[in-house]
Backbone:
């Protein structure tokens, strides 16, 4: 297992935004979940929330591509804002650029996931809520 005590990294102001496609055919998403859970177990959820965000991308394969959903999001801009302005990502939205261009979904922090509200446009992020 990789290092799970990231205290030195966090103390120096390091930030992590980690994304993993749930349809990844090369690296199982469960491996990333296990790593993140181990970091939380080592450091505590509150400490981890200050520097580490983990999002799972339904329908997305390895490398961010997917036949069901190929997301785009300005993750570098989000990371820059978090580091330079102290503003962590808040309710980010991803946009599909391949299967159904323009379709949007909320990015939900693990362990939550985008659940359809039961009404509204299936192609619109506002029709989904991050659920556990």
Residues:
């Amino acid at each position: 297992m990789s290092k799970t005590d990231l205290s030195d990294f966090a103390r120096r102001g390091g930030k992590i935004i980690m994304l993993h496609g749930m349809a990844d055919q090369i690296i199982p998403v469960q491996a990333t979940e296990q790593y993140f859970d181990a970091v939380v177990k080592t450091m505590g959820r509150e400490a981890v929330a200050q520097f580490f965000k983990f999002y799972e991308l339904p329908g997305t394969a390895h490398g961010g591509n997917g036949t069901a959903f190929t997301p785009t999001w300005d993750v570098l801009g989000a990371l820059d804002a978090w580091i330079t302005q102290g503003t962590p990502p808040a309710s980010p939205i991803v946009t599909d650029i391949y299967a159904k261009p323009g379709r949007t979904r909320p990015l939900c922090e693990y362990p939550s996931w985008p659940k359809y509200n039961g009404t509204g446009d299936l192609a619109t992020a506002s029709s989904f809520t991050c659920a556990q």
The first helix runs from residue 7 to 11. The beta strands are 16-21, 52-57, 71-72, 93-96, 104-106, 113-116, 128-131. The radius of gyration is 15 Å. The helical segments are 7-11, 29-43, 45-49, 75-85.
